[in-house]
User: Fold this.
Amino acid sequence: MMWITALNAHVALTYAMKIVYAGNSSAINMFYMAFVFISYTHNISNVQFCRSVHISCTSACACSENCTNRPFDQEDKKVKVVKTKHCGWGVEADEFIDKGDYIIEYVGEAIDDALCEKRFWDMKGKRVTNFYVVAVRKDLNIDAQFKGNESRFINHSCDPNCIMEKWDVNGETRLGIFAAKAIEPKEALTFDYGYRLSFTT
Ligand SMILES: [Zn+2]
Assistant:
């Protein structure tokens, strides 16, 4: 708890509020610490998913190749990683993207909670401030720190033009970034990182 004193009052208060809710599970507490760390750095991709999982059609389905329910089979939209004025690296559209379009998959290493916790503390020790973990469910976290694509640079917004969705593709959980509204070329892509983390087990 020592390091918390180094954080500002807002973050400490947030932590205090969250820890009450977190109970005694060390894994869950770790996530709340990660959450605080993240809200402190404003550069993490921790997302609260609703319980619904989208089910993608697969080659096992009876539908045709023209089926529109296979987003991960589509080409990524053209996007560009750019240096922003106030938010470090960011991502902007490099073509028009229509509302509902699949843009890009959020890829990274699938790691369990123990490894996630280890990496979090390692990073903290090295004063690394970018944490690219999306907590999908217990013992499934997608970490884009070492292996990822442009999607990890998409910044947070409370009024985002993109949404992250969890999809079941052939029994595998995959994360997709979709357009929540029509997006013009050169427009910055954002999604709500979801500071209200839910770690029900
Ligand atoms: Zn289909």
